[in-house]
Amino acid sequence: MLSIEQAKQMAKRLRAALASSDQAMTHCAALETVAQQLGYKDWNTASAMLPAAKPESAITFDKAIPILRIFDETKTREFYLDFLGFSVEFEHRFEADLPLYLGISRNGLQLHLSEHHGDASPGSTVFVPMHNIESFGEELLNKRYGYGRPSVVQQDWGKVLEVYDPFGNRIRFCQS
C-alpha cells in the first residue's frame, strides 16, 4: 500500500513536472490533486487513511482477519459464497466428521468461519470499510437471496449496507 510519504513525493513530482512546462501549482493544490487521484475526498482524508512509512524495527501489524462462528456448512456456503460472492481460500478439519474451519476472501476482505465452539461467539459484528457500496448493494439485490434483501442506507457519516448471516453474525459494509 502507498504510504503518506510516497503520496507527498507524488505531489512534489507533479509540481516539478508542471513547473517544467511553466505551469505553477501550489503545494497544497498538488496534495489535493494527488489525494483525489488516489480515490480520497481530500488531502486530510488521504493523510488520515494512508499509512506512515515504518522503520524495519518498528512493531507493526498486518490487517486483522475476523473469525465468525458458523453452525451449518451448507448454509455457510450458500450465504458467503453464493450470495456475498466470496471464494474459498482454504478448508480445514482435523478429521472428516469434525468441525469445519474455512478461510474465505473477496477483493481484499478475508474472513475465517469456524464451527469450533471456542473460536468465536455467534452474534458478532464485523465493520468493513469499502468502496463502490452502491454497486455491491445492487449486486446483492439482483441475487434475490431468500433470507435477506439488504439495501444501502445513508447515514450522517457515510453509507451502510448490513447483512446478517444465518448464525446471527452481522457484517456492516461502510463507505464514508
List the SSEs and their pairings.
Elements: H1 4-19, H2 27-37, H3 43-49, E1 67-69, H4 73-83, E2 87-92, E3 101-106, E4 109-114, E5 125-129, H5 133-142, E6 153-154, E7 159-164, E8 170-175
Parallel strand pairs: 1-4, 5-8
Antiparallel strand pairs: 2-3, 3-4, 6-7, 7-8
Helix pairs in contact: 1-2, 2-3
| Portion in strands | 15-25%
* Major beta sheet summary: 4 strands, mixed
What does the radius of gyration come to?
21 Å
Assigned CATH architecture of the largest domain: Roll
The SS-based structural class is alpha/beta
Provide mean pLDDT, rounded. Answer: 91
Number of domains: 2
CATH topology of the largest domain: 2,3-Dihydroxybiphenyl 1,2-Dioxygenase, domain 1
Terminal CA distance reads 19 Å
Number of helices: 5
Description:
- The protein folds into two domains: 4-49, no CATH class; 67-175, 2,3-Dihydroxybiphenyl 1,2-Dioxygenase, domain 1.
- It contains five helices and eight strands; from the N terminus they run αααβαββββαβββ.
- The protein has helices at residues 4-19, 27-37, 43-49, 73-83, 133-142, and strands spanning 67-69, 87-92, 101-106, 109-114, 125-129, 153-154, 159-164, 170-175.
- The strands form two sheets. A four-stranded mixed β-sheet has the order 1-4-3-2, covered by helices on one side.
